[in-house]
Design brief:
Blueprint (H helix, E strand, L loop, with lengths): L1 H10 L2 H6 E9 L2 E8 L12 E6 L3 E8 L2 E8 L1 E5 L5 E2 L14 H11 L2
Parallel strand pairs: 2-5
Antiparallel strand pairs: 1-2, 3-6, 4-5, 6-7
């Protein structure tokens, strides 16, 4: 499986492969939809706390680089964690999309560069 992960890191944002699982994918109307759920691994920044996974936030959908001529939509579900002692809801601080867009930061940066020419 690690060989597959290394290949996927070349095609998709690396943080998605490291921290999320692909739960399904589908091709529909020349669009590739890839669905991700955050892995049930306690974030390092909260390792001193006793956390329980309590489901997911609402799914977000972002555009990414086209693959093989198909537009790519990434459907991402981030995990919610509850601190058992305080009852406080916690989550990783993800910067999944570029500010003011519905695109991954890499894809938005790429488009910004090509628009300057």
């Amino acid at each position: 499986m690690s060989g597959e992960n290394e290949l996927l890191k070349l095609l998709l944002p690396e943080y998605l492969i490291s921290y999320f699982e692909i739960v399904r994918f589908e091709e529909k109307d020349n669009l590739l939809h890839i669905y991700f759920e955050e892995k049930s691994t306690v974030p390092k920044e909260f390792s001193s706390l006793h956390l329980q996974s309590k489901g997911f936030h609402d799914e977000i959908t972002v555009d990414d680089f086209p693959l093989r001529g198909k537009s790519v939509k990434l459907h991402i579900k981030r995990r919610r964690w509850t601190d058992v002692k305080s009852g406080k809801i916690l989550q990783r601080d993800w910067k999944l999309i570029a500010k003011g867009t519905r695109m991954t930061q890499d894809f938005a940066g790429f488009l910004k560069k090509i628009c300057r020419y």
